[in-house]
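Supplementary Methods, section 5.1.

A reviewer requested that the exact input to the structure prediction be made available. We therefore reproduce it here, unchanged from the version used in the analyses.
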Amino acid sequence: MLRFSTLNNTELTNFFHFEDKKMSIGLVGIKTGMTRVFDESGISIPVTVINIDTNRVSQIKTVDRDGYSAVQIAYGNQKESRLNKAALGHYKKSNISPAKGQVEFRVKELEDNLSVGSSIKVDTFKAGEHVDITGRTLGKGFQGGVKRHHFKTQDATHGNSISHRALGSTGQCQDPGRVFKGKKMPGHLGNVNRTIQNLTIVKIMADENIMLVKGSIPGHKGCVVIIKPTEKKYTPKEIFSEKEIKEAKDNTDDSNETLDSSANKDNNVDKSSSTTEANSSNENKNIEESKNE
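The structure derived from this sequence is encoded token-by-token as follows.
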């Protein structure tokens, strides 16, 4: 049990900083792939790159008209020839360009600055926030009980043949004389909607409309993912900061400048020494010629 008396006011506000976002607008993005970034101490952080594909409001639902409050978000762009008349009419009514699809987010209260057609950018989230990401998992096809349900295999030797990865007994005797529904058996694996909770946003790239999230998310490259504020309670903390990178770049520039200045000094010294040696050699030659005369 968390005792509120042990927390300061700032810690308490940070702890419940995103409590009001449990029923708020999210984003729809495209999973681009995975890469990594390095923090100030050089530790590698694996991140998933999510491209926020032109999110805009296509419909606003109210309690008086629809019975509940929600905001419908359209994402992506689509040719008109690939849409049916119902969807095309919906987009024309909202006066927005045809989209690949729509996602509805239920909200407790509608914001005043929201209107049909307004775009939603990736900077609605900030680095350090935690999000829940929903996507469709990779389809594995028809799989056996060992891979699908993590069953143990049977003996590899001792007279066992053909039945190494077999399921084994699935039912009882004459009573009940059937296999109960829901029995774990071989079947289709994957290709279902799954949500990964409490993922940390590492970096927001507003110019490129890209979000970097720590860890992996469901789905293949190019699949549609839904990003929502997390249902969990947490303390927001930035993992990756741009200031330290800029300072490191400035330090490297300063070191390069000092190296260049030292190199120039060495070159000047070498040139001066070479000129003095040449002058001394010329003087020696002149002295020798005068003696010979």
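The CA atoms of residues 93 and 230 lie 33 Å apart. These observations are discussed further in the main text.
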